[in-house]
Amino acid sequence: ENGITRPKGHKVTYHYNSTVEDMHFGKTHPMKPWRLTLAKHLILGYGLQHTMDTHEAVAAGKDQVSRFHDPHYVEFLSQVSPTTFDELCRDPRFAKAIPPKHPGDNVDLGPYNLSTSPGADCPVFADMSTYLFLYTGATLAAARQLVSDTSDIAINWSGGLHHAHKAEASGFCYINDIVLAILEMLKRWPRVLYIDIDVHHGDGVEEAFQREPRVMTLSFHRYGTYDESQPGHKFFPGTGDVSDRGLRGTIGEHFALNVPIGAGIDDRQYGGLFEAIVGRAFEAYKPSAIVLQCGADSLGGDRLGQFNLNIKQHGECIAFVKALGVPLLLLGGGGYTARNVARAWCHETALATDNTLPPNIPMDLIPEPRAFQGHGNGNGQLYPAFPPNKHINECKDDQLEMMVKKLD
Ligand code: VJV
Ligand code: CA
Ligand code: ZN
After folding, report:
1. Is 222 in the pocket of ligand 1 (CB under 6 A)?
2. Alpha helix segments (H runs only) across 160-200
3. How far apart, in whole angstroms, are the C-alpha atoms of residue 115 and residue 124?
4. Would you say the ipTM is above 0.95?
5. Whole-number Å distance between alpha carbons of 89 and 110
6. Ramachandran angles phi, psi of 257, nearest 5°
7. Is the Cβ atom of 297 under 6 angstroms away from ligand 1?
8. Residue 84 lies in a domain
């Protein structure tokens, strides 16, 4: 008897597929699907599987993925592998997709921003199609559970790949499972609120719905010059300024919100911003359902991120959104210091099911031990605290003021 119980009054479904966890983007690529195995083992170790219905995901179909993505892109993704890539690149159907070379790129990019070069953000790796269609299948199954009222909170930690565009992979994301889930939810509900606490801007989701007032997108992210020694080099993807609020002149204008943040934000600062803005957005927009992208690269000590959140505060964001009491889709996303990612998502699975884990779960962050030059906090140090009285407080006030203007 460990005190772990089913939640009363609401039902949680958990969507997973173990095949996804065994995939490799490349030896030193920061995206490591095995962090999902770590998370799963913690979840099983605490007995949380008894508190929710677990569903093994099946692959999404090409037709389902084509509801958002370009059918040629979907066809390419369904056939691509390290052995078929060159041949597919010569196929005239895909030839027009070869992007111009960006100045400064040190890798050769093929069609749709894909590449067989191991240094690429979106490499072509073995069994990649299987991986892509499975994480998408898990997110779609989760969304369908909510839509059919068979779940109140549906979880897929392998989803949340917010950078993928209609006909282009970007930032470790190939299929935008979030956009597909929201489209599924719009079949039933008039308004869906999307909230994104990954350290990166949720650009793919925002762009997909930039003309759509039935979806409000709200991203909190690191924004601005990436490091002082490289002026002009923006933190990826470089979009998501406060002034970016949906496509001007369309009915979607004002239904995108962005909270750009500097490096080193701490728990108290982030919690204040999050609760004020999400609370106000919820009141004003009155969404019928919420999708929350829980990217764990906003934790301190992340290999790519530059925020200083502890697992407790990251979890408090999830608890705050859950308390709003509307159907909720919880998705993963970034998170590059695997042990912290696993503990955060295990803790958040416990929060979803109204459980408190015994205090022996180590909640302190462990920095990535490996030296990793030039990115995030991977050198084993936390960022210095965000300087007080700088634009964080102004940003909060600005943002709230803008919310009122936009929503009233
Ligand atoms: O900053 C970038 C783009 C470049 C060009 C491509 N090179 C590889 C890196 C610089 C400008 N990309 C970001 C993408 C971050 C994606 C985050 C995804 C999410 O968390 O929001 C959601 C899942 C970036 N930052 C760090 C790296 N790329 C990176 C990529 C590698 C790498 C080391 C760092 C790719 C391969 C290898 N090492 C071996
Ligand atoms: Ca974000
Ligand atoms: Zn991220």
Report:
1. no
2. 177-186
3. 6
4. yes
5. 7
6. -125, 140
7. yes
8. no
